[in-house]
Design brief:
By secondary structure, the protein is mainly alpha-helical. Helix content is 73%, strand content 4%. The protein has a single domain, classed as Rhodopsin 7-helix transmembrane proteins (Rhopdopsin 7-helix transmembrane proteins), CATH 1.20.1070.10. It has a two-stranded antiparallel ribbon with strand order 1-2. InterPro entries: GPCR-Ligand_Int (IPR052954), GPCR_Rhodpsn_7TM (IPR017452).
């Protein structure tokens, strides 16, 4: 399903559609021109800020790399839709003449091609959730697999693959000089090739599979994150009270300590032995530094997991409507652009777009909440004199 923002014609055929043509037209204007434009404009700004801050922080780990590439694709989606809305307002409401260029055709192509960065965002979110889930559940096996350099390669690979499987549909629709016999004029308008419908149908099928798979897998990852974070919270709560239960007790083990306890324990024992004096007493300052470093690392991992959990939860919540619309329209053809419930369908699509645009714009809130360095860098950008 494309992030199309054009205003569809009213459906005048008598039907059992609960949404009237007038209500549909009013809601389309309220959603598309007012609410969506505000969210999209805000999202463009926030994603530029996200990309700048992650660059300034140095993209030091695989998660930061994925969040950086995610900010780029999110910005492209929103910017394309913003341009399409501006063109639509200039043409439909202000009557601006762009000469030989049919501005509505350009707006249509912008919103249609927004499916490319949208699929990139879906795939990067899927990859980020899966890689963090693997590192949380099996840190021994995957902590050294998802390195910074490999994450850069995988994200670039996602960009290339998504662009490649969109090429047939993109090539079958583009701007071309078209002569209008009624007005005896020539304009640069959208042109469809004979095989366009076939290419778009094949792309739509593939995209439905991608979004459905992502929804299922990311939902599973969120459940795993919630379980692991709860177990970690219970462990730290018990440890703070001075109780040290056996690691075999269910639900009281820090996931990171459970998986890495042997290695870290050996390293700590070695350091303790090296810092032990001739009288058999340990050096308290060395032990304190080891404990502090270990505590900071654990806290950083927990915050990173929380950030990925929230980003994944936003994705699942805001794209669930898209999956529901896909399968309801397949199982119940009346609920479709050409069915009896066309008005209800388009109103539901407006709600869907609202959730998607909100999802693409709200990641900055997650980063500020769970990333101290991101929050400090954001403060430096907007309040440089107070530093």
């Amino acid at each position: 399903m494309n992030l199309t923002t054009v205003f569809p014609p009213a459906h005048n055929v008598m039907s059992r559609d609960p949404v009237s043509d007038e209500l549909r037209a009013s809601m389309t204007i309220a959603f598309s021109l007012c609410l969506h434009t505000s969210i999209i404009t805000t999202g463009c700004v926030t994603n530029v800020i996200n990309a700048i801050i992650f660059l300034r922080l140095g993209l030091s780990d695989s998660i930061s790399v994925s969040f950086f590439f995610l900010a780029i694709s999110d910005f492209v989606i929103l910017f394309q839709n913003l341009l399409a809305r501006v063109f639509g307002i200039l043409d439909s409401y202000l009557g601006v003449n762009f000469g030989m260029l049919d501005i509505r055709s350009l707006g249509f192509l912008l919103t249609t091609f927004a499916s490319v960065p949208y699929d990139i965002t879906v795939c990067i979110t899927l990859y980020t959730a899966v890689q963090k889930c693997c590192c949380v559940v099996f840190p021994f096996r995957f902590n050294r697999v998802f390195t910074r350099s490999r994450s850069i390669f995988i994200n670039i690979f996602i960009y290339l693959v998504v662009v490649c499987y969109h090429i047939p549909a993109i090539a079958s629709q583009h701007l071309r000089l078209v002569r209008n016999p009624s007005s005896n004029s020539t304009k640069l308008s959208v042109w469809f090739s004979p095989d366009r419908n076939r290419n778009v149908a094949a792309l739509g099928l593939l995209r439905n599979v991608v979004i459905t798979t992502a929804e299922i897998v990311v939902s599973f990852c969120v459940i795993v994150f919630a379980y692991k974070l709860k177990a970690s919270s219970q462990f730290h709560s018990i440890r703070a009270k001075g109780e040290f239960p056996s690691q075999k007790e269910e639900g009281t083990v820090d996931p990171e300590i459970e998986e890495n306890g042997k290695t870290r324990g050996n390293e700590t024992d070695t350091k303790r032995k090296n810092k032990t004096g001739q009288n058999g007493h340990q050096t308290s300052s060395g032990e304190g530094r080891v404990g502090s470093s270990r505590k900071n690392q654990t806290s950083k991992e927990v915050r990173a997991t929380q950030a990925v959990t929230m980003v994944s939860t936003l994705f699942v919540s805001c794209t669930l409507t898209s999956v529901v619309i896909i399968y309801v329209s397949l199982l119940y053809p009346a609920f479709s652009p050409r069915g009896e419930l066309v008005n209800l369908y388009y109103v539901t699509v407006q709600v869907r777009l609202t959730l998607i645009f909100a999802w693409l714009s709200l990641n900055i809130v997650v980063y500020c909440a769970y990333n101290t360095r991101f929050r400090n860098e954001l403060f430096k950008i907007f309040c440089p004199k107070s530093q």
